[in-house]
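Final report, section 2: Outcomes. Of the targets proposed, GroES-like protein is the one most frequently requested by collaborating groups, and we therefore present its record in full.
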Amino acid sequence: MPPTPLQTQHAAVLYGPKDLRYEERTLWPPRPNEAQVKVVATGLCGSDLHYYVHGRNGDFALQAPLVLGHESAGIVTAVGSSVRNLVIGQRVAIEAGVMCNDCGYCSKGRYNLCKGLRFASSAKTFPHLDGTLQQYMNHPAHVLHPLPDDCSYELGALAEPLSVLLHAASRADLQQGQKVLVFGVGSIGLLACALAKSKGASKVMAIDINQTRLDFAKSNGFAEDVHCLPVGERAKSAEEGLKQAKEKITSALLQFGEEEGFDVIFECTGAEPCIQMSVHAAITGGKVMLIGMGSRNVLLPLSTAALREVDIHGSFRYANTYPTAIKLLNSGKLGNVEKLISHRMLLEDTAKAFNLLSRGKDDSGNMVLKIVVGSS
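The predicted structure is given below as tokens.
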């Protein structure tokens, strides 16, 4: 008998800056420890957009064609011979990172810091590990997390960005009754607001340079009050930049009626002026969480932080958060979280989706927040 031909599938494959091709690829069976997942929903992330526009994300440059996408959920269509925790037809959220499970960080539960971790859709490691902007993917079963029957695939895809915030909130030791300020109200910042409220924050405020996004945050209950930063000329010197940052945040704190500052700051922009402002925005003894990835080298008012015992914490991805994220997304405690998804597009239109995300507004002038790509 002739050999049975292998099945094929389609994937959106990035070859270079704005060179995204919708390709037919061989669909291989899963390895013994893997499950095959039909990808139903993938949310486009800012890091995906950096790869699409520039062919790189910070220091991580494309070295070979790469499938982007890592905020995803789908349905199991096949399982490897060693898989016991999943069955065909099971709905799952896909955790994109594959840790070594053999190093000191993994043994301590901090696998997000694992030096051998391979992250689907990231060019940090080579060979690259393809992401989820494909019809099907084979992925280790231990990082596929069951979804409740009444949790949509789109909400399941939000488990990834929500995990980023759960990890940051844990590092900040966010407590009920604390006051929280969020810099940046893109999808990550809005999730930070929603999470803070779900944890019983007594006040949640937000700052951005985009009034439309701020209006969305306030009208949909993500933030109680908002402040739009004035966009002026770039500071002529580092010292002038620090001075401007302090002046701008002082004005914002006055507007909020919180001259003493906030207990926890979620900095979700990565922009140097906002990072500088966050130090001044924290109450004495407060905490600043650096979540946004932007400026590579930042001048900080460290003496202000030191003298006021303001703790500045880095936060990188997440570890052991998916079950909590899925439960929280399905609980209804995150308010209007489903409104983060502003647009939906098909896999074959992924390039159009990235161009739309890059513009920030659709042809009707509507704000683009989170685009979810689904396979037909």
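The chain has a mean pLDDT of 95.
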